[in-house]
Amino acid sequence: MEEQTLIEAQDLSRLYGRTAALSGLSLALRKGEILGLLGPNGAGKTTTMKILAGCLAPSGGSVKINGIDLAERPAAAKASLGYLPEQPPLYPELTVDEYLGYAAGLHGVPPAQRADAVARAKQACGLGDVARRLIHNLSKGYQQRVGLAQAIIHRPPVIILDEPTVGLDPIQIREIRALIKDLGQSHGIILSSHILPEIQAVCSRVMIINKGRVVYAESIERTAQHRMDSLVVGLRRGPDAGALRQIAGVERAEQLEAGLYRLTVAGGADPREALAEAAVRNGWGLVELRSQAKTLEEVFVELTSGEVTLHETLQEAA
Amino acid sequence: MSMVLTIARTEARRIFVSPLAWAVLAVMQLILGVFFVLYLDAYQREAGMSDQYMGVADFIGGGLYNTANVVFLLVLPLMTMRLFAEERKSGSLTLLLSSPASLIQIVLGKFLGLMSFMLAALALLALMSFTLCAGTHLDVGRIAAGLLGLFLMMSAFGAAGLFVSTLTREPVIAAVAAFGLLLLLWILQGVAQSESLQHADLIGYLSLIGHFENLRRGVFNSADVVYYLLFVALFLWLSVLRLDIERN
After folding, report:
1. SS (H, E, C) chain A
2. Whole-number Å distance between alpha carbons of B196 and A163
3. Which pLDDT does position B53 carry in this prediction?
4. How distant is the Cα of A47 from the closest Cα of chain B, in angstroms?
5. What phi, psi does A59 have (nearest 5°)?
6. Distance, in angstroms, between B130 CA and closest chain A CA?
7. Which of B6, B13, B102 sits opposite A75 (nearest CB)?
8. CATH class of the A5-223 domain in this structure
9. From the candidates A91, A98, A118, A152, which should be mutated to test the interface with B, based on the most B CB atoms within 10 A?
């Protein structure tokens, strides 16, 4: 059950007139996973989420939610889905209780269980104190929480959150992130953001979209390993750079200053252990060993910068 | 069905927690009240002079309900403009679109919710008419037929307004366009009077007001009722189509 696939999107494409907002995008979401969607503005994040939530029909491709095809049986598929769009879909003239009761009804919670569902969602999102206030009078942060409560009220297996922390103050951001992480234990969550540290802090997998295509999809752990591209080593009695290059996994070595070296790591290798052993064997006096990782930001910029896109476009044209 | 009712209940609630509905009802009641008194006054004066007998119900039906019809024509676009246009503007339409409710359920729910407002307006008008029971024998059947006519007329206005509201994201544009559409359908009757026009009968038949005439006079003709029901169904169906196109 742990590996249960909650969302399976195949080859999605979406045209707006003649411009393609999405082309050939596939993604899968498993239970207990938080997938972060990253991308520059206009990359197709929101379009993807709208399609997954059934608010927009794809021009091509198919979406299965919890094994049910969204196009064939929309009502059944949407029942296992909670969606918080960029702009929380609130009715400002209703109170929080009224609104959440309505959302529960809309999502098919039987009347007898609605009060419980509302109470649970309010508790999860910290809305207990404002339950009887009009949504109109709540601060942006609380409104966002009401939106989130609406998305989880029927305990859907799949939750889709489009930039859930936009417009919140730092404390609220932390709270919402903690809430999302918590929800991620028992649900599958797709989250979009353009705040990179947020993705790193919350998500278990990251997917970068650019120009309507997936350009990167990897788990956060793997991303961390992959990204180690150089080591900075401090040796009290260091040899010359040539000797360091002999160690397995080191591609290039250069001396930065007396006793400080930068080693470029061959793709995917991790020479740290071998390096420490060699240092002990040869009595180099290892005092510092630091991996210089490529940050997610660098990966992001590299994959979404103009040159890569231009390259892709040229490839497409060819 | 329970989904439709859930949507309708909340829609009705949203209509009646907003000051707009109350302001509209209050203004409407004031205007209709003034006309009611004026018609009564005129009836009293004329009743002595006229040798032909004319019931008070006729007088109310003929005068007050015609006036009410015009007032509803002016007012209903204000109530329908919010249904979809405002929701689209504020983004809350997404709540409905991402829920398991189908488009048909959404449109029906909204329409039924709007009906709560129509019924409230109608109830106020009915109360006003039935105060006459205190002083005279009222032809209840006639009044009822007139009220039914008004209800069908309002439903038609509401359905057309709802459809126009699905076309735009600006509530004000929705109101203006709905008003224009209703007025156009109304004056088809006048257009049909023109002798030089071909198919004048058909055009006259399509006019909204023509079918109200019979009911107002207390003649219950099922063809007229069916006309209004078809009118409502057509515009609700167009709304569903329009929302479906938007999704694609």
Report:
1. CCCCEEEEEEEEEEEECCEEEEEEEEEEEECCCEEEEECCCCCCHHHHHHHHCCCCCCCEEEEEECCEECCCCHHHHHCCEEEECCCCCCCCCCEHHHHHHHHHHHCCCCHHHHHHHHHHHHHHHCCHHHCCCEHHHCCHHHHHHHHHHHHHCCCCCEEEEECCCCCCCHHHHHHHHHHHHHHHHHCEEEEECCCHHHHHHHCCEEEEEECCEEEEEEEHHHHHHHCEEEEEEEECCCCCHHHHHCCCCEEEEEEEECCEEEEEECCCCCCHHHHHHHHHHHCCCEEEEEEEECCHHHHHHHHHCHHHHHHHHHHHHC
2. 62
3. 58
4. 12
5. -75, -25
6. 35
7. B102
8. alpha beta
9. A91
Q: Does A238 score more than 90 pLDDT? A: no
Residues on chain B touching A102 (C-beta within 8 angstroms): 6, 10
Domain boundaries, chain A: 5-223, 229-292
Residue ranges in chain B whose pLDDT is less than 70: 47-54, 61, 195
Phi/psi region, residue A11 (left: phi>0; alpha: psi -120 to 50; beta: rest), is: left
Q: In what order do the strands lie in the sheet with A260-265?
A: A250-257, A260-265, A228-235, A286-293
Domain A229-292 in CATH 3.30.70.100: yes
| CB atoms A57 and B248 under 8 Å | yes
pLDDT of residue A2: 47
CA–CA min distance A143, chain B (Å) = 13
- Answer yes or no: pTM beyond 0.90: no
Nearest to B106 by CA among B97, B119, B118: B97
Write the burial class of residue B108 (CB in 10 Å: 0-12 exposed, 13-18 middle, 19+ buried).
Answer: buried
Distance of CA A122 to the CA centre of its chain: 25
B3 in contact with A, Cβ within 8 Å: yes
Q: Which two tokens stand for residue B203?
A: 């055009």
Say whether B8 sits in a helix, a strand or coil.
Answer: helix
Tell me B27's DSSP state.
H
Residue B87, token pair as written in the block: 């929701």
Question: Interface pTM (ipTM) of the complex?
Answer: 0.85
Interface list for B 69-98 with A (CB within 8 A): 90-98
